[in-house]
Design goal:
The chain is built from 6 helices and 7 strands. It is of the alpha/beta class. Helix 2 crosses helix 3 (about 65-75).
């Protein structure tokens, strides 16, 4: 499994570069720490909605932070459904409904219309990879 391979690589070479996103570079140790934090957020969000091992929609722009969220999804035993926010809202709604998504991770301020499942909003600073300790400690924002 991919998440296990990344974890093993992180144990073997924790200071090796795992993700490059513009000027940001994350080591395997940093990626593991960030993904484990996100996995804890996902577990809490899924538990709040009585879901586990679920399909989780991902409506985030391509970034290093997206890699961390995808890895977190795999760590909680779920699968991700990539969503292109440029698709019509009805198509996104249908995809989420057909997949029986339990949750969708969405960039703060993205216009997805009414969703058939709860959402977890990700701030612009998190997407850009510029997390500070305070934003790391905040609970996920959940809503419909």
């Amino acid at each position: 499994r991919l998440e296990q391979q990344i974890s093993m690589q992180g144990s073997a070479t924790p200071q090796a570069i795992a993700v490059i996103d513009g000027i940001d570079r994350w080591t395997y140790a940093e990626l593991e720490t960030r993904a484990n934090h996100r996995a804890a957020q996902l577990k809490a969000a899924l538990a709040a909605h009585s879901a586990s091992e679920a399909v989780i929609g991902v409506a985030l722009p391509r970034s290093g932070a997206t890699v961390e969220w995808l890895l977190a999804i795999l760590k909680v035993g779920s699968v991700y459904l990539p969503l292109d926010i440029d698709h019509p809202q009805q198509r996104l709604h249908t995809m989420l409904t057909d997949a029986r998504a339990a949750l969708v991770i969405v960039a703060e301020g993205a216009e997805l219309g009414a969703l058939p499942c709860p959402s977890l909003s990700v701030s612009e600073s998190d997407i850009a990879g510029h997390n500070d300790e305070q934003s790391e400690a905040l609970p996920p924002v959940i809503g419909n």
